[in-house]
């Protein structure tokens, strides 16, 4: 009963795991256990802890054990689309990691271990589709970060230490209630802009439409009266006269 998909999920044997190792063009060995229906971290894969890449994405994992520290050669770790609500602090010992994807889980800011800040070689960190309310300011120590995914969380601000990361090229913050994204909308001119203008003669309007139009026109005149305007009309007589001094040097200011 332990084998196959039961309440415990699929049981991974060492033989299955060995058969799931793929070698990339760059010669890295990837242990690919994605989409296997796994609910608990398979202990047997600790015997394959010398792989450079580990893919446990698209499973039903709720916990990653502290034994993850055995995978000291890891450069690439993909845990996206699981049920993770915490990460072990031992993840910070994987000092060679350049890629970490923990997108689409149930992580909160509190459940992110401080030890993530120790991953000094991280270039890609994906935390999208989680339950983060803030980004730790200490992420500012991840100086090699190039790509940071923070989309679909509950973030209201991004700390300056993270915005100012020296190598960051891509930061996806879409679908967050960010205050800095809302501000420009609030500052939009409150005067309604007319999209389309129709010109008609009074005789072509019925009495009720005419009344509405006149009411709108009166409102517009009131608005004009309230708007301060300069007392003098600006006038440039020299530009209109035949002997205009602007004529001689018009080639200089003509828009080419």
UniProtKB/TrEMBL annotation:
It comes from the Eukaryota. GO terms for cellular component: cytoplasm. Signal peptide: none annotated. The keyword Transcription regulation does not apply. Residues 224-256 are annotated as: Disordered. Keywords: Leucine-rich repeat, Repeat. Pfam families: LRR_1, LRR_8. PANTHER family: LEUCINE-RICH REPEAT-CONTAINING PROTEIN 18-LIKE, PTHR48051. This is LRC18 protein. It comes from Onychorhynchus coronatus. The lineage of its organism: Eukaryota, Metazoa, Chordata, Craniata, Vertebrata.
């Amino acid at each position: 009963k332990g084998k196959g998909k039961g309440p415990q999920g699929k049981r991974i044997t060492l033989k299955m795991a060995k058969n799931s190792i793929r070698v990339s063009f760059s010669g890295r060995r990837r242990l690919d256990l994605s989409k296997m229906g796994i609910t608990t971290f398979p202990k047997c894969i600790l015997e394959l802890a010398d792989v450079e890449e580990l893919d446990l994405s698209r499973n039903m994992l709720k916990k990653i054990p502290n034994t993850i520290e055995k995978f000291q050669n890891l450069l690439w770790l993909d845990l996206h689309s699981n049920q993770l609500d915490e990460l072990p602090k031992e993840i910070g010992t994987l000092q060679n990691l350049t890629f970490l994807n923990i997108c689409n889980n149930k992580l909160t800011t509190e459940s992110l271990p401080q030890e993530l800040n120790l991953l000094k070689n991280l270039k890609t960190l994906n935390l999208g589709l989680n339950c983060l309310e803030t980004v730790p300011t200490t992420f500012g120590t991840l100086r090699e970060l190039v790509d940071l995914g923070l989309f679909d969380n509950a973030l209201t601000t991004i700390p300056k230490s993270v915005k100012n990361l020296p190598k960051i090229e891509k930061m996806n913050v879409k679908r967050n209630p960010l205050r800095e994204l809302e501000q420009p909308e609030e500052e939009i001119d409150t005067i309604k802009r007319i999209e389309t203008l129709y010109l008609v003669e009074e005789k072509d309007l019925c009495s009720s439409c005419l009344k509405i139009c006149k009411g709108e026109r009166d409102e517009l005149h009131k608005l004009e009266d309230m708007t301060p305007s300069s007392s003098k009309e600006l006038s440039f007589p020299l530009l209109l006269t035949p002997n205009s001094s602007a004529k001689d040097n018009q080639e200089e200011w003509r828009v080419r």
